[in-house]
Amino acid sequence: MIAPGKDEPVRIETIVVPDPGPGEAVVRVQACGVCHTDLHYKQGGINDDFPFLLGHEAAGVVESVGDDVTDVAPGDFVILNWRAVCGKCRACLRGRPWYCFDTHNAKQRMTLTDGTELSPALGIGAFAEKTLVAAGQCTKVDPAVAPEVAGLLGCGVMAGIGAAINTGSVGRGDSVAVIGCGGVGDAAVAGARLAGAAKIIAVDIDDRKLDTARSMGATHTVNSRETDPVEAIRELTGGFGADVVIEAVGRPETYRQAFYARDLAGTVVLVGVPTPEMKLELPLLDVFGRGGALKSSWYGDCLPSRDFPMLIDLHLQGRLDLGAFVTETIQLDEVEKAFERMHRGDVLRSVVVL
Ligand code: APR
Ligand code: ZN
Ligand code: ZN
C-alpha cells in the first residue's frame, strides 16, 4: 500500500522486493496494524520522501535471509521492529539500546515496477505481501500466537506497555495514573496491571475510551472534561498523587496535569509526542520542589529480543490480553477507511491481514 504524494489517497501497487543481501531478510507479512504514524507519513507530516510504502506494526514469516544471517532463518515467525540496534555504541554498551546512535535498518532497495524507489515507513513498509528488512529488525516469537495480535508489539502497544513496565518501572502495589486512553494509553493500563499496580486511574475526555480502559484493567476512571484530573488523582491516592503518571496524549495541558498529578517522589512518563510549536510554562519552584523523575519513553524503552517473546508468552498463558487491542481485521484495500475510523477514535487498532 503506497502513499503516492502529500494528502493523496493511498493505493495498491505492484512492488519489487529484491533478494536479501548480507544482514538482511525478506519477510512474508501476515498481519500489519494501522498506526497514526502511517497517517502522518501520508499527510507529509514526517518528511517528503514520497512515495512511501506504509505499514510498520507487523508480524510474518521469514522467507529468505542474506549471507551471514544467523539469528533468524527461513520459516521463523517474527515480529518486526523499527530499529535494528548496533550493540556496540555507547548507548548499547550501557544497556540502553533504545537510544542507539547507529541503527542498522536495511538500506532500502524496494521499488515500484518502473524503478521508482520506495521509502518504507519506519524502515519497514509492511502493508505488502513481502518486505525487505535488516535481520536485526526481526525477533522470533512463539508461532502459536495469531499474527494480527503479534504485530501490535511492533509499535503502539509495546510503547504503552513499555512505558509502564520499562520506563516507569511500575511495581507491585503502586498507584498509576494514565492520561489519554487511546491504544497507547490502554496498553500502559495493561502494562500497569501486569506489573501489579494496586490502583490504575484512567483519564480521558471521552467516556467510550474510559470504558475500554476499565476493561484493560483501570480500577478508577476520570473524565477530565467534567472533573479536574489532578484533584481527582490526588483524592484517589490519599492526597499524595500517583507513584507513576503516564502521559499518552502529547499536549501541553496534559503534560501539565501529569507533572502535578504525581506524588512528590513519583515518576512522570511522557509517551505522547508533542508538535514542535508546543510549549509549557512551569514555576521553577514547582520543578525544584518536586523530587522524583521526569522521563520520556522511546518505543517503550523496549529491548525487542527480551520484551517481544516475554509479552507473547504472557499473552499465550492468558495473563495479558493482547487480543483486546485488535478492534477489527481488514483487507489491504481498506486502509484508507481504517484511517478515517482511527481519526474518529472509533478503533483501538485495525489490523490488515495478508
Ligand atoms: N485529556 C485527556 N485525554 C485526551 C485529551 C485531553 N486533553 N485529548 C485527547 N485525549 C485522548 C483521546 O480521547 C484519546 O483517547 O487521548 C487519546 C489519544 O489516543 P489516540 O489518538 O488513539 O492515540 P494513541 O495511538 O494512543 O497515541 C497517543 O502516544 O505514542 C504517542 O504519537 C503517539 O502522541 C501519540 C500518543
Ligand atoms: Zn548502538
Ligand atoms: Zn506506529
From TrEMBL:
Pfam families to which the protein is assigned, alphabetical: ADH_N, ADH_zinc_N
Database matches in SUPFAM superfamilies: GroES-like (SSF50129), NAD(P)-binding Rossmann-fold domains (SSF51735)
Regions annotated as coiled coil: none
PROSITE patterns to which the protein is assigned, alphabetical: ADH_ZINC (PS00059)
Keyword Oxidoreductase attributed: yes
Key word Secreted present: no
Occurrences of domain Enoyl reductase (ER) (ranges): 5-354
SMART domains associated with the record: PKS_ER
Keywords recorded for this protein, A-Z: Metal-binding, Oxidoreductase, Zinc
Family, per entry: Belongs to the zinc-containing alcohol dehydrogenase family.
PANTHER family for this protein: NAD-DEPENDENT ALCOHOL DEHYDROGENASE, S-NITROSOMYCOTHIOL REDUCTASE MSCR
Protein name (database record): S-(Hydroxymethyl)mycothiol dehydrogenase
Species this chain originates from: Streptomyces virens
